[in-house]
């Protein structure tokens, strides 16, 4: 039986990775009836990550009551995969869609994310993956750490749960009563940005405005994160100020690394490890992947190259089907990509092509598979 792997990222704002998987699988089976098509939808750690992992490898979706971004009751969830890995998406408890138009990064909390993590640990997970994406918060992950037993004290020795506007009041951090299973369960912070914690390219400056922060609030949030980094350095000996990815999700990347012992990992590497991609490659004839636009940013460890690096080692060709192709991407061919094809068949601008993207993807896959089938029959492939 001929085997194909389909593992695309979403085309942001156009098609989800699940939709792309479905279209690609349908096209393959239409041209090659009876083929085995293994679909792995990729999520970037934000909303939809739990469902993507469950669709890829199966498992169980667990529900639990948590606090939402403003401390309100919320219905949270996480995935427990067959191998004992738990997947938490912080968007399920602290996501931007949960606050609607009431965006205020000084008041929102990640406490509910910590409650989800605690529920996963209590459920007996063997590894804990936390997707950092789509957050409405800027609390440096202190809320999540507090839910897991961390204690934050002000200069008077009074304990409190910091949010963005009170990070500057943190004077001491006590980690002695953290959830006991954090010592035995590996924690992975799944992140696709290398944003530092503070400064003009830091968490508050880059992501604060989309969370309701005006310039004055951005300055206050940045000062709070700077204070957190200073206290973390003094009390734990860990340096997070310049840690790549520390600024992810309003500083939660840095907080998880320093306070919860998490390992920062690129999202695609986390996905590939969790779904057992290396084993999937055994016997595969071809891998189809893709993302909204393949450009020089893709060379920094995004989905296409993450997939290509591993497939290249296994000797499996990789075809990238993308929404658009940027300049100067020739390096992808040296790193395992066999060919790159755009679905923008009539050279339309983004807004104009959105409505026809699904049909264009179908037609592009049809053309690719026709050519590939012909090449195989004539001995060219």
TrEMBL record:
<dbReference type="InterPro" id="IPR036129">
    <property type="entry name" value="Glycerate_kinase_sf"/>
</dbReference>
<keyword id="KW-0418">Kinase</keyword>
<keyword id="KW-0808">Transferase</keyword>
<protein>
    <submittedName>
        <fullName>Glycerate kinase</fullName>
        <ecNumber>2.7.1.31</ecNumber>
    </submittedName>
</protein>
<dbReference type="InterPro" id="IPR004381">
    <property type="entry name" value="Glycerate_kinase"/>
</dbReference>
<dbReference type="InterPro" id="IPR018193">
    <property type="entry name" value="Glyc_kinase_flavodox-like_fold"/>
</dbReference>
<dbReference type="InterPro" id="IPR018197">
    <property type="entry name" value="Glycerate_kinase_RE-like"/>
</dbReference>
<comment type="similarity">
    <text>Belongs to the glycerate kinase type-1 family.</text>
</comment>
<dbReference type="Pfam" id="PF02595">
    <property type="entry name" value="Gly_kinase"/>
</dbReference>
<dbReference type="GO" id="GO:0008887">
    <property type="term" value="F:glycerate kinase activity"/>
</dbReference>
């Amino acid at each position: 039986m001929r085997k194909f792997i389909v593992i695309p990222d979403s085309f942001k704002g156009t098609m989800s990775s699940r939709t792309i998987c479905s279209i690609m699988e349908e096209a393959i089976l239409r041209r090659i009836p009876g083929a085995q098509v293994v679909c792995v939808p990729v999520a970037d750690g934000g909303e939809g990550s739990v469902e993507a992992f469950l669709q890829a490898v199966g498992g169980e979706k667990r529900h639990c009551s948590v606090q939402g971004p403003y401390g309100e009751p919320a219905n949270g969830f996480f995935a427990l995969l067959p191998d004992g890995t738990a997947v938490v998406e912080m968007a399920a408890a602290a996501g931007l869609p949960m606050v609607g138009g009431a965006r205020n990064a000084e008041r929102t909390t990640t406490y509910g994310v910590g409650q989800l993590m605690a529920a996963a640990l209590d459920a007996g997970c063997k590894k804990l993956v936390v997707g950092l994406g789509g957050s409405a918060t800027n609390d440096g992950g202190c809320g999540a750490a507090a839910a897991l037993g961390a204690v934050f004290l002000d200069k008077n020795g009074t304990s409190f749960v910091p949010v963005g506007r009170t990070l500057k009041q943190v004077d001491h951090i006590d980690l002695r009563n953290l959830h006991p299973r954090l010592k035995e369960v590996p924690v992975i912070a799944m992140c696709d940005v290398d944003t530092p914690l503070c400064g003009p390219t830091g968490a508050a400056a880059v992501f604060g405005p989309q969370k309701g922060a005006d310039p004055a609030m951005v300055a206050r949030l940045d000062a709070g994160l700077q204070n957190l980094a200073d206290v973390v350095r003094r009390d734990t000996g860990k340096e997070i100020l310049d840690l790549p990815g520390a600024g992810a999700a309003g500083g939660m990347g840095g907080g998880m690394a320093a306070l919860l012992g998490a390992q920062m990992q690129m999202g695609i590497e986390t996905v590939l490890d969790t779904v057992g991609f290396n084993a999937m490659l055994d016997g595969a004839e071809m891998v189809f992947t893709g993302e909204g636009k393949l450009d020089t940013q893709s060379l920094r460890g995004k989905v296409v190259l993450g997939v290509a690096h591993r497939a290249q080692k296994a000797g499996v060709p990789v075809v990238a089907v993308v929404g658009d192709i940027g300049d100067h991407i020739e390096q992808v061919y040296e790193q395992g990509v066999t060919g790159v094809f755009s679905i923008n068949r009539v050279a339309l601008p983004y807004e104009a092509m959105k409505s026809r993207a699904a049909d264009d993807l179908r037609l592009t896959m049809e053309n690719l598979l026709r050519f590939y089938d012909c090449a195989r029959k004539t001995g060219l492939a």
